[in-house]
Amino acid sequence: xxxxxxxDDLKVHFPTPDGVVKATDGLSFGLDRxxxxxxxxxxxxxxxxxxxxILGLHRGTSARVSxxxxxxxxxxxxxxxxxxxxxxxxxxxxxxQDPLSALHPYYSVGNQxxxxxxxxxxxxxxxxxxxxxxxxxxVGIPQPDxxxxxxxxxFSGGMxxxxxxxxxxxxxxxxIIADEPTTALDVTVQAQILDLLQDLQNEFNxxxxxxxxxxxxxxxxxxxxxxxxxxxxxxxxxVTEVLTHPEMPYTWGLLSSVPDVTADTSKRMVPIPGNxxxxxxxxxxxxxxxxxxxxxxxxxxxxxxxxPALIPGNRGEDHLKRCHLSNPEMxxxxxxxxxxDPALAEER
Amino acid sequence: xxxxxxTVTEGTAAEEVPTVDxxxxxxxxxxxxxxxxxxxxxxxxxxxxxxxxxxxxxxxKVGDIQAVDGISLALPKGGSVGLVxxxxxxxxxxxxxxxxxxQPTAGSxxxxxxxxxxxxxxxxxxxxxxxxxxxQDPYSSLNPRHTVGSIVAAPLRIHNVVPKNQTLKxxxxxxxxxxxxxxxxxxxxxxxxxxxxxxxxxxxxxxxxPKVIVADxxxxxxxxxxQAQVINLLQDLQREFDxxxxxxxxxxxxxxxxxxxxxxxxxxxxxxxxxxDSIYNNAHHPYTQALLSAVPDVKQAITGGRRERIQxxxxxxxxxxxxxxxRFRTRCPIAQEICSRHEPPLLQIGRRHKVACHFPGxxxxxxxxxxxxxxxxxxxxxxxDPGASPSSDLVEQPGYADTWFDLDKKSIGRA
Lengths: 348, 415
Description:
A: 33% helix; B: 14 helices; ATP binding (chain A); membrane (chain A)
């Protein structure tokens, strides 16, 4: 059965004077209602570009989008601009990273949220206001009736992000795309916002895509995780699977290069050498090969000449990896192993 | 996008990838504490207030932003102290006051027998060589119109440490030390990636061979895969040149890795300070515990599901008009009457562990009567108690004493 959201071979290319930037190059994934997909990657890996394609935000720009994005059976790339407008903010909503620049400074917070509601519903201002005040209360803003008339600058960072969430939920969307929703926030506020997002997801049975570079956030929030590198998915599968047994050296590198608050202090922080590649001239073969310390374990010059396919690894059908290493155990041969104990993972 | 296109790619396909062993040899475990290291920089009761003025022609002073309100800490030679807290807690202001980018309102910063806080500008200049700073944003902290060579050479020029004809050689040495190609001295900052720019900032800070570096969020603007590179570099440099770091960051995991000693700030005050184990495994202040429980953690989430979080309600109060008594009381889950009346002293409760709370302990196991009441000479509600004799030596001292308040015996004890 087809998933609620199915993205197939999505490509977003930007022609520039220097050549075509392949920001997203052949991305496929699926997501069911009530589930959360975490998309992880460094800046420039194409995670935000891909998700804005779902909302049709590249329409009217020079971007060339191809492939298919099917939401509940509708192909979002085939529908007209008018149909897209009807869907945007109603069925699919987005939470942006920086709530201060995503909210209009001249309009009161309440009016902005009410506008989002009235675009899609023929209701009076008064009815819209009641609905917005309810929503503000639902996301935990104290004195919502008075806060309705406040302006964004009068809100703190966490409150603004709550207002953004209220705005995205006002039309009961079936899919929420949260693009780095907590990156601009402090940890204690981040914890509040993540809890809120999860509560609301359970209540409304929403599908959520959460884009982040924080593996901790993904581990706590997501059911599936998609690791992106240079515009491509390099590893995709259930969170518990991918983060405990990464089969692609990049994922492994990400996990061993971030410290965590509970790890053994003798654990070393192993950096990934080099820098992320340019999307204009991606390296031939596997995009990660110039930084991959396991490259020499692959016979021949395969990593530099041929792009590996995204195929199931050794641990089951739903754990996909894009790597030539036939035996991922080779990654663990090194002294440093990923920071979790597989035995503990089994207990879950 | 245009940024990364011009980036000097060091890892092009033509170059050799380091082997696993090489990568591992660059990787470091968490820094360790040297308990006997003498203090190189001692901050006592540092205050930094910014005046708030009324609008209009006569701009009367109407109050103060109490950004840093009396912090004390000692920075051991060649060691690191981490300063953590949420935005607005005053950690960056503290760093800037210590490097004398601000003139502190009160308090002292003792360095090599001199007080940096009150020293004249003329006397300060030679001392600036010893205390340098690494800034958070590698994009705005490098002048885009200057070449990397002239950015790194600027401190050498200003302090006249090397003859003019040898400046270039020294700059190239410095670039090499931080892992950049010394041939790139003639390029401009925009030709480098974020991680490389941060290395330029580090080279600039190293140019004068300082004894102390204040690193203000040195990795938070970088991509995760690059953060580890920079942290490992800082650890290498610290070992090689015996530099003391005041490491300011909001990322508790990075601080835990880099700093064997950590101070937690809230609204301009240090609420808890101690060695790594005391803070991360045995925190006694409710704020520290809430902060730690809020950090998303891969291992925890994957293996045991989500931890029980200590939810803090509300927002940080304004530093213009902080709450009376304990500044954390408005959000504290265990606040009582005494908390609004008296500010808790920063009490030493272990060999290297101090906490500022009337009810110090693991949440749930914390004492029900304020432990500090006797010391402050008040009763459990915070009203003056004529029978009690207030302890006289509650003034905050940097560093640790040999005796401390034993929480089990409720008296001053020692090891």
